[in-house]
Amino acid sequence: MALRITLSLCLLITFGYVGASPPNIVYIMADELAYFELGHMGNPYIKTPHIDRMAREGLRFTNALAASPVCAPLRCCLMTGKHAGHASVRKNDGGTPLRADETTVASLLQDLGYATGGFGKWGAGGRDSTGVPEKHGFDVFVGYYDQVHAHSFYPPYIIRNSEEVPLQGNTGGRSGRSYSHYHIMEAGLTFIRENRDGPFFAYFPITPPHGMFDIPADDPAWLRYRGESWVQDPAIDQDIKNYAAMVTMLDNDVGTILALLGELGLEDNTIVFFTGDNGGEDRFKSPENPRGFFGPNVNPHTGVAFRGGKRFLYEGGLKIPFLVRWPGKIKAGQVSDFVFSQVDILATLAELIGAGIPADTDGSSILPELLGESDRKQSQEMFYWEYRGHRAVRFGDWKAVQPGEDKAWELYELAADIEESTSLAATRPEVLAQMKTYAEAAHQPERPGTFLDPTRKRHERDRWAKWGSALGRAN
User: Fold this and answer.
1) Considering the entire predicted model, what is its pTM?
2) How far apart are CA 174 and CA 386, in angstroms?
3) What's residue 8's pLDDT?
4) What is the mean pLDDT of the chain?
5) Which of 39, 238, 288, 347 is the most buried (most CB within 10 A)?
């Protein structure tokens, strides 16, 4: 504690916060919540009043991009500030670890006196690996280390700093007595209360609405859907209804966090981010709803649709919701078309607290845009993505996509063709050539971290805990 106080005093003196406290940081990231699945975006089914309030009271971005179209790689990119061509985690297997020597958002903040807590799904290193969160700057992390473990809301246990926390009455699968999300959120709220004197970094990579679509029948979220004819319709699958309620549940969590900050008198000195992790998946498809019941990648006002979705490098896989609220610092009611990606978050938070940005990162700070002090159009000259042989580059309004190792590159001008329907590769070869050159230079061989236990015993136990299987219990 003495070390943290000393570091906090250094932060006050060195970086210009004399007379005030360094800002607290809350970063809430919903798992697979799509761009058009929020009330303020016009979704006709899903109710998100607290998130909508954030949009009114803060800044909404229309061009925020995931660093990867899937969970584990983007979490690595977010934490390390490296794009997919430099990241140590590029597989979406849930356990590939960060290397031991990598700086993360949390370690950077921890080194400058911040209390650091994570609550939800880690996805950047299974237990007994070099990538566990408590070795990368988190004082405490509660939830799931492996993302397969995170598929169930009724696992027999969750993890706290690599140790198991039993959940009474649970055996895995889709039912039980202890709803894991409630325990994870309470741990996060307790962390904020205990560190109210700050500064603190509270990272909420929460699981809903991803995973098995399960939510207790008595969750308060259901109250928002009383009288809704589609919820009463027996012809509509229960998972569809549960999905909407799960989004509203996380919306209530956002409201609870904001209310707690107000109760503790911390609102004016806390910057709150709300976002998704990767682009939406067109789940719950039918002949009547070919892009999914909730139209996660379809503009409900115009019918214009993002191509693809999760796992793909078209806009549907990369476009994410992104809101930022900081009363008195960020002007309310703003909408920005500034282009940036999750790779830029480390640099942004580093500038926010006056820390140096590690030399091996790829991002640029978007803090000037947050504070209304920028006239830039995007954070980086070019953006780069890769996943399972697919590659993409963005350069201004130009987007180049190679949809497979043996596939030809495509080129789209997003300002005129956000649906990525007509490739201009043949008519603008000079633009494509420049972007392909950048793609070649951006890729480096993958260097993941390692497991300290070569048998991965506890990591495999976590994966099987999704179902509470015999293998999971025996190991």
Assistant:
1) 0.95
2) 34
3) 44
4) 94
5) 347
